[in-house]
Amino acid sequence: MSSLSLALRDSSTMLRRNLLHARRYPSLTLNLLLTPVMLLLLFAYIFGDTMSAGIGGGDADRSEYLAYLVPGILMLTIGGTTIGSAVSVAMDMNEGIIARFRTLAIHRGSVLIGHVLGSVLQCVASAVLVGAVAVAIGFRTTDASVQEWILAVGLLTLVSLALTWIAVGMGLVSPNAEAAGNNAMPLMILPLLSSAFVPVDAMPDWFQPIAEYQPFTPAIETLRGLLLGTEIGHNGWLAVVWCLGLAVLGYLWSTSLFHRDPK
């Protein structure tokens, strides 16, 4: 068997393993899903009219703010779901299963690839579930074409891939699952400091650079443009560059940590 076919076979096996773990222990994923759903309902029903009036110049229309809100909530969902990847990797490292895998005749990188692919699938599925809740409470994207929908799904997948590799590295450097969850928490906090809830130019001047020069804002603005037909501008290529850069950085970091000899 060639090295490529061996890697594909072992990676698919590890992917099935991680999906089975997610199915048998759904509480972690459900807990991480609860935050974006609660924020979606809170901002839509409690703050929706007020936020719409502020952004729209006095016209209080909850549906307009809901349309603005959903792309940011979808990115927040992905950031939160990847925390589960960091916890899962840390658990594997501390429970001894990785040490057993090292003694088997399997492709060494398949362990991480299985975690990453499983996490990407969970991220996309979580985004679909949160999107379904958004549609149920009134979110509509009547202007989005089939091509824009495909690009939107591709962007969500690319963001999931980039953040998952970073989360895997955080899980590898963490001494236990609790520390992994804490270390990966910025992946859920950064969307809160972006343009997810209000436009950047509506923020205080001192805070605007924090919101603008981070990976989530261009990704959110690109997704918003694809779904709602708003101006994307330079945010499209910025989002792609951020995702590719984070994916490469996370991959190099994670593989270097994983291939180190255990102490």
What does this structure look like?
- The protein is mostly helical.
- Helix 4 runs antiparallel to helix 6, helix 4 runs parallel beside helix 7 and helix 7 packs parallel to helix 12.
- The longest helix is centred in the N-terminal third of the chain and has 34 residues.
- The two termini are 32 Å apart.
Give structural attributes.
263 residues; elongated; single chain; 12 helices; mainly alpha
Structural class: mainly alpha
N-to-C SSE series? HHHHHHHHHHHH
Q: What fraction, in percent, of the residue positions are helical?
A: over 70%
- Head-to-tail CA distance between termini: 32 Å
Beta strand %: under 5%
Report on the biggest sheet. Answer: none
CA radius of gyration: 19 Å
> What is the number of E strands?
0
Poorly predicted segments: none
Given the C-alpha coordinates, what overall shape results? elongated
Q: Give the mean pLDDT.
A: 86
Total helical elements: 12
What would a concise description of this structure say?
The chain is mainly alpha-helical and 263 residues long.
Strand-helix topology:
Blueprint: H1 3-24, H2 27-46, H3 48-55, H4 62-95, H5 97-103, H6 110-136, H7 146-173, H8 177-183, H9 186-189, H10 208-212, H11 216-228, H12 235-258
Helix pairs in contact: 1-6, 2-3, 2-4, 2-6, 3-4, 4-6, 4-7, 4-8, 4-11, 6-7, 7-8, 7-11, 7-12, 11-12
